[in-house]
Each structure stands twice: as C-alpha cells, then as structure tokens.
Specification:
The structure holds two protein chains of two kinds. Chain A has one domain. By secondary structure, chain A is an alpha+beta fold. In chain A, a hairpin with a 5-residue loop joins β2 and β3 (25-26). Chain A has helices at residues 38-48, 77-84; strands at residues 3-10, 16-19, 25-26, 57-68, 71-74. By secondary structure, chain B is of the alpha+beta class. Chain B has four domains: 6-109, Sulfite Reductase Hemoprotein, domain 2 (Alpha-Beta Complex); 142-292, 2-Layer Sandwich (Sulfite Reductase Hemoprotein, domain 1), CATH 3.30.413; 306-398, Sulfite Reductase Hemoprotein, domain 2 (Alpha-Beta Complex); 413-548, Sulfite Reductase Hemoprotein, domain 1 (2-Layer Sandwich), CATH 3.30.413.10. Chain B contains 18 helices and 21 strands. In chain B, strands 16, 17, 18, 19, 20 and 21 form a six-stranded mixed sheet that branches. A five-stranded antiparallel sheet of chain B has the order 1-2-5-4-13. In chain B, α1 packs antiparallel against α2 and α16 (510-524) packs across α18. The radius of gyration of chain B is 23 Å and the shape is globular. The chains are: A alpha+beta, B alpha+beta. Chains A and B meet through α2 of A and α1 and α14 of B.
C-alpha cells in the first residue's frame, strides 16, 4: 500500500488543508502526518472525521502520496493540483507563494 | 430594461440576510455541513477543488453597465481580480471566503443581482439569445417572456425540490443562438397560420452523461397560455420524474422512457385543469413587460456610414474584427458588437476586474449601458452605432478585448475542468489554450471558417462537447488525462448530438488529432461548406481514417 495522508477543505475559506502530526491542519502537504498501512490510514481518517472538526474542515478523505526527496507528492494529478493551485494560473494558489 | 419592483427587492434582501444567518450558524457549529450544504447551494455557493465558488445569476444574460461594474468590483474585493463567464450566461468567482459571501451577496443586491436559481434542483435561471432586442432576424424580443418565467419560477413553492435541476431556454429568432433544443424545455418563438406569435415547446433535450435533442411537445402555444403550459409540464415532471437515481432524474430520461406522446397526453390533461386559472397572463400584463424591455432611444439614421467604411478600408485589424465580431442590427445605422473573451492562448470566459469595468464604461458610452453575456462565454454590446465601432474597437483592443475570432476555431467553449472543478476528470482550459495557439493565425482561421470546438472536463458536459462540431471530453484513464473526440454535434436550430470518433487521445496527442481533422475538412470540403456541413455530407469515415488510419 502506498503512503496516505488526510486532506480536506477548510470551512472558513475553503482552502485545501492536510492533517498534521499534532492534529492541526496545514496548507502544506509536507506537514501532513502519513499512514503507512491500512490500519493507520483508517485511524487517521477517523481522527479527521471527529464531529468537533465539523467547524474546522469540510469533507476529509485519504489520498495516496509518494515521498519524493523532502516532499510528499500525491500520486493523482487532481490532488497534485490541489497542493498547488490551477495549472493555468501559476500566480494563484499555494504555488504562487 | 427590467428594473426590480419592491417585491423583488424585498425578496432578494430577505434571502441575503437569511443566508448571512445560515453562514453564522454554520461557522458557530449550530448546523452541520450536511445541513448547511443544501442551503449554500441554494445560494450559488459550491465547494470546489481549491476554495469556495460563488455562481452569480445573470438572468437571460442581460446586464446593465452598473451591474457589470459591480461584478468587477466584487472580483477585486472578494476574489482574486477576475471572474469566469459560463455556458449558463452566469459568472463564477473562484476564491470567495465563506464568511465574506453574505457581504458579496449584499453588494450584488445593491445592483439588483443575486445567486438565486444558480444551483439546486429548482428551475434554474432562464437563458436566451444574447442578441435579444437587437438581432435583425428576431420575431420579437424574448426577454419579456424570460422575465415572466423568472417571476413564475423564482421560489415556486411546488418546484423547489424537483427530481433534478431544470433549465429553460428561449429563442425569439428562427436562428437559434440559445441552444434551446438541448435544454429541459426549449421555447422557439414563431407565428402560427393565423399570424399570432407564440412558441413551439420542445421538451427533454439535454447534455450530460445521456445527451438528447429535445422533442416537440406542442407546436404552438399562445403567449397568454405559455405559463400555465409550463406549469403543466413541470407538474408532470415533478410527479413522474425519477427520484431513485440521480443520473436518470432529468426530464429527458422521463421523455425517453415514457415517450413524447405519453408525456404530451399527461401534460395536456394537466393543462386542461389549469389553463383558465391564475397563470393565464392577459395581453395587458404581457404588454407591461414588453414595455420594460422597450428598445432604447435609437437615432433615425442611414445604415451607411462613410467613416466606418473608411476605417475598415484603412485598418486591416479593425476590418477583421468587424468581419467576425460585428453582427447586423435590426435598427439601421446600428450594429451588434461581440467582445471576445477568447484571446489567443487565453482562458475562455475569464475577464479581469478592470476588463469588466472597461466594458461597463464602454457600454455606457456606446451601447445604452446594455451588455449581454453569451452561452459561448463572450460578452456583447448589443446596440452600437456603426459610426462608433472604430472607437469602440480601439478601446477594446487596447485592453486585450479586441480579438477577432467570433465563431472561429479559437472561439472555444471550455468548462473550468480539473483546474478548478471538484467534479472534473481532466483539465479543459490548457487544451483549449493549446488549440487556440495552434490555430491562432487569423488567415488560417478565416480559411477554416465557422468551427465550433467545445471542451468538457467530465461527463457532466458543462462545456457542451456533445454539441460541438468537434467536441472534446476529458476523462481520467488510470490516473492520466485523456480526451475523447466527438464529431458532428450542433447546438443550433439544426441541433444534433456528436458521435464518438473512436478511442481517446493522450494530452500530448490530442491537439495534433484536432489539426488532422481540420486538415481533412479543408481537403475535402466543397465550396461554401462549413466543417459541420462537410461532416454531414461525408459522414464519420473520412475523419476516422485520419485519426486512426489502420488502428
């Protein structure tokens, strides 16, 4: 099984966020806590789905990622776009920072 | 142009305040996302890939200058300085923050705008011919009827929870520029044998995963009876439309499964019960709405303007723009000017805040403060004096809004695709940009002539690929984007659904594939034939041959 992390959109502004090791949510996928097996992935998703987080994030789900050097990179292009921003507007989204 | 009455004003204001409270409760945790989602959708608020998206209604594609200027202001204040005009004649903002959306809605309400009927399983905003009230070929301005449909449908208590969304389009011209045959209901204005003006009612058209050209349920319905007849159709749909399967819930499936004759029978039966009731609209009321859309104060003048002709002769770029983007007006001395939102290599339908403000200013200067949004993702200044066209074009051109490509191969419809949309399976915009660059040379575009390329980034077909002369559907094949080509689609009065040419192409291959189709067309076309005409004459095989050879 590939590495997995949990992603969601932040309630307040809809921006893409990732669940980190201390249970907070980061805009940077490299801060994400990874799960190496199914059990850990389920635990990660369960933590992200806690009812009290309903005022923090929307629609948490697991995505597959690969460790590429220092970076975590999603395996699906859709998720790569979510970590960056629109490919047609490189001046916008996280890629612009 | 229609102005809000007190009732409209109150309705929009109350809705805005109601949504403000709903957002507050959501952020405070008093309601869950599950409870909030349908409420935000009823106010045009989607959650997309990167952020929230706010879809704002432009009823029947008509904007006043102050409204377009406000749309520009909203793009700057609540978004990242741009907006995206869609195939529904709406505008979408891609980056608003949830807690700021109620303020954005309030700013919209100040110019009599809103996000009502832009989402949810209701009767959506009615769309129509972008040249309404200006086109030389129209029988009558369709917008008074669109506005009456708007009043009938907004918050209609019976039709707020339909099986699925419901889209109505109206054309007042025999040359259909509103794609009425691929809507849930299409209304085509025409005259009966007695010389009365009314509508052909077409039902069950649509795109999406199961595309259909609509079928005529009634050849003629008089103006007074139109609204009760629409009500009868909606009642039949609301009662018998499928609610067990989202993908079979549109009226097109009901019409397909039951047959148009059966649906007609049910509708006529329902209509008999209600046709003499409160929905019968009398001539005086119709006249009242026609008055609201009365033509602006045109000056009586000759249709020939010597300065206009001189500028065309002296300036080739202006002449090219006139050739493609300027359309005949019903009033002598005036013309319809199309503002392309498809610069070569640009993002179809996107406009910056300052571009919106400029077009608003230009509309005040040259077009009675009247602007239209087209379902092909362009803007229109509908009433420009021929004598002013050169000045208008010069100002548009300086703001990168003077692209001379209306109806050509680079005037591509493209949905936002995977760059923005949570439903998309592949990107659409980058492909449209590469096709635009490949065919950007204007002489080549002139040679190719009218060619409608339409691109959707998923099966939901927001990019209308089924009715593109060349349609492109982006899909996901084992994590990679690939593109299926359809040929022979047409959104006009001769509507047809395109046929899949064969296996899809990779992102790297697809632009070459499109070029090979265009080259083939040029090789085999007969004099005066557009791409679609050639396709209809020769069929799929010659095109399949160039795409796949022996494959």
């Amino acid at each position: 099984m590939s590495l997995q992390v949990v992603t969601a959109n932040r309630l307040e502004d809809g921006l893409v966020v990732f669940l980190t090791s201390d249970g907070s949510w980061s805009e940077n996928i490299n801060d994400a806590r990874t799960a190496e097996d199914k059990e850990a992935a389920n635990a990660l998703l369960a933590e992200a789905s806690a009812p009290e987080l309903d005022t923090v994030i929307v629609g948490p789900y697991l995505i597959d990622v690969e460790q590429q050097g220092a970076d975590l990179v999603p395996t699906k292009y859709r998720e790569v776009l979510r970590t960056k921003g629109p490919s047609v507007r490189e001046d916008l989204g996280y890629q612009a920072v | 142009m229609y102005r809000y009455d007190d009732f409209d004003r109150q309705l929009v204001h109350e809705r805005t305040e109601q949504f403000r409270e709903q957002v507050k409760r959501r952020l405070a945790g008093d309601i869950t996302e599950e409870q909030f989602r349908p409420l935000r959708l009823m106010n045009g608020v989607y959650l997309q890939l990167h952020a929230y998206m706010l879809r704002v209604a432009v009823p029947y594609g008509t904007l006043r200058a102050d409204q377009l200027r406000q749309l520009g202001m909203i793009a700057r204040k609540y978004d990242k300085g741009y907006g995206h005009f869609t195939t529904r004649q709406n505008i979408q903002y891609n980056w608003p923050k949830l807690d700021e959306i109620p303020d954005a809605l309030l700013d919209l309400a100040k110019v009599e705008m809103h996000a009502i009927q832009t989402s949810g399983n209701c009767i959506r905003n009615t769309t129509t011919d972008q040249y309404a009230g200006a086109a030389a070929d129209e029988i009558e301005d369709p917008r008074p009827y669109c506005e009456l449909i708007r009043q009938w449908s907004t918050f209609h208590p019976e039709f707020t929870y339909l099986p699925r969304k419901f889209k109505i389009a109206v054309t007042g011209s025999p040359n259909d520029r509103a794609a009425v045959k691929v809507h849930d209901i299409g209304l085509r204005m025409h005259q009966n044998d007695a010389g009365e003006t009314g509508f052909e009612v077409i039902v069950g058209g649509g795109l999406g995963r199961t595309p259909f050209v609509g079928k005529t349920i009634r050849d003629f319905i008089g103006k007074n009876d139109l609204f009760s007849y629409l009500e009868a159709i909606l009642r039949v749909y609301n009662r018998f439309g499928r609610r067990d399967n989202k993908y079979k819930a549109r009226i097109k499936i009901l019409v397909h499964e039951e047959g148009i004759d059966k649906i007609r029978e049910l509708v006529e039966e329902e209509w008999t019960q209600i046709k003499d009731g409160s929905l019968r609209v009398d001539d005086a009321e119709i006249a009242h709405y026609i008055e609201q859309f009365a033509p602006p104060a045109f000056e009586a003048m000759s249709d020939d303007d010597t300065d206009f002709e001189r500028h065309k002769a002296e300036n080739r770029r202006f002449a090219n723009w006139v050739r493609s983007n300027v359309i005949e007006h019903k009033q002598p001395g005036y013309a319809i000017a199309n503002v392309s939102l498809k610069p070569i290599g640009g993002i179809p339908g996107d406009a910056t805040d300052t571009q919106m403000e400029l077009v608003a200013d230009l509309s005040e200067k040259y077009s009675f403060a009247d602007v239209r949004v087209t379902h092909e993702q362009n803007l229109v200044l509908p009433h420009v004096k021929k004598a002013d066209l050169f000045a208008l074009w010069s100002e548009l051109d300086a703001a990168e809004l003077g692209t001379a490509n209306l109806g050509y191969v680079t005037d591509i419809i493209s949905c936002p695709g995977l760059d923005y949309c949570a439903l998309a399976t592949a990107r659409s915009i980058p492909l449209s940009q590469r096709i635009s660059e490949r065919f950007g040379d204007l002489d080549r575009q002139h040679d190719i002539g009218e060619l409608k390329i339409k691109i959707s980034g998923c099966i939901n077909a927001c990019g209308h690929h089924h009715v593109g002369h060349i349609g492109i559907l982006g899909l996901d094949k084992r994590g990679k984007e690939f593109y299926q080509i359809t040929l022979g689609g047409d959104a006009s009065q001769d509507a047809s659904i395109g046929k899949i040419a064969g296996a899809g192409f990779s992102e790297a291959e697809v632009v070459d594939a499109i070029e090979s189709l265009v080259t083939k067309y040029i090789d085999i076309r007969e004099s005066g034939e557009r791409f679609i005409d050639t396709y209809r004459r020769v069929g799929m095989d010659p095109f399949k041959e160039v795409l796949y050879g022996d494959r």
